[in-house]
Amino acid sequence: MNEYIYLDHAATTPLDPVVLGAMQPYFTDLFYNSSSSYGPAQANKSSLDAARELCASILNARPGEIIFTSGGSESDNLALKGVLAGWLKLGKAQERRHLITTPVEHHAVLYSARNLEEEGYNVTYLAVDATGRVDPAEVEEILALHPDTALISIMLANNEIGTIQPVAEIGRLARRYGVPFHSDAVQAAGLLPLDVEALCVDLLTLSAHKFYGPKGVGLLYLRRGTPFASQIQGGSQERNRRAGTENLPGIIGLAEALRLAYANLERNTYQLEALRDSLIAGVLERVPGAILTGARMGLRLPNHASFCFNAIFGETILLSLEERGILCSSGSACAAGSTEASHVLLALGLDEETARTAVRFTLGRDTTQAEIEYVLKVLPQVIDNFQV
Questions:
Q1: Catalytic residue flag (residue 200)
Q2: 199, 172, 203, 194: which is closest to 83 by C-alpha?
């Protein structure tokens, strides 16, 4: 039994036992390389194909539009760099030198964008409002000013503040202007619908460990006909778009975890929303000066509650909560331990001192009302202990 109350599901989720069971044979008896030509290997190839078909059906995509990767960071890098290299491959690199993104993206997108700037590409970082949302009207203005736009990359939901972006509306604009559109949906998987047609996206990033699957495996949805060039050369795996022996146990786990997440989506999100709302209301009521960061309920992930507190370093709060059996975070797990204020909170207009007080609670399938009540009992005590 876990001794902690775990409220950091945005960082990672525990592996579902059903998923582990589906993966297990491919670590042992069914260890064959699916690229080999003999019978047992070809049986594994059939399993790989079935996993691809399952993922595609959930996303409302074609199986050939699914590329399996090592996770969200690789998929984000592959999306940005692969599309821009694709324009080069088509002989249109000089006509497509502009990228649109936001200042609140995951570092996998932001650092890729900076890398592309170093290579001579121009990047527009859209403004966000106080909740972290972009204005589609600004996207259209930028598109009209930049007929050389090669790609738009805007996340579906933010990992630090839970805000959901108007992705479908932006996607419709992108199609009108003939610009490929990528969305990092890593944080949204298993919490929001992911129909790529309804979202109007050309590329979509997922990572299995965010929805009770294994770490080290993800996928990139790539709409047929989108400019693209492989960034990892070698074998012909993934239709020559991503070389390397497929991580078959991980892929099987990803597909099964995705199936389970979307088989029970409505029920799971309804339960999470009720717990989230209880937590948010309780913190704002019981902790003087607490600030809810990100969007209000209707435009927020169903499991996400993030706050800033009055002049108390977020890491200090986290350590005190851990001593009392509660695990949460101060923002992105990828930036844990950093002394810098969150780039997301700064983009919202918060000052550095306030941004350093951030604490994020992200709920999961097993979170209970009793656990939320315990947090609401302990957190005000922790805050009081540090008040001057």
A1: no
A2: 203
Catalytic residue among 55, 200, 308, 334: 334
Q: What is the pLDDT along the chain (388 residues), one digit of tens a residue?
A: 368 999 999 999 999 999 999 999 999 999 999 999 999 999 999 999 999 999 999 999 999 999 999 999 999 999 999 999 999 999 998 899 999 999 999 999 999 999 999 999 999 999 999 999 999 999 999 999 999 999 999 999 999 999 999 999 999 999 999 999 999 999 999 999 999 999 999 999 999 999 999 999 999 999 999 999 999 999 999 999 999 999 999 999 999 999 999 998 998 899 999 999 999 999 999 999 999 999 987 899 999 999 999 889 999 999 999 999 999 998 655 555 556 899 999 999 999 999 999 999 999 999 999 999 999 999 999 999 886 5
Query: Domains in the chain, start-ordered, CATH in brackets?
Result: 5-12+265-381 (3.90.1150.10), 17-263 (3.40.640.10)
DSSP state of 14: P
Q: What angle do CA 102, 363, 161 make, to 5 degrees?
A: 20
CB–CB of 235/243 below 8 Å?
A: yes
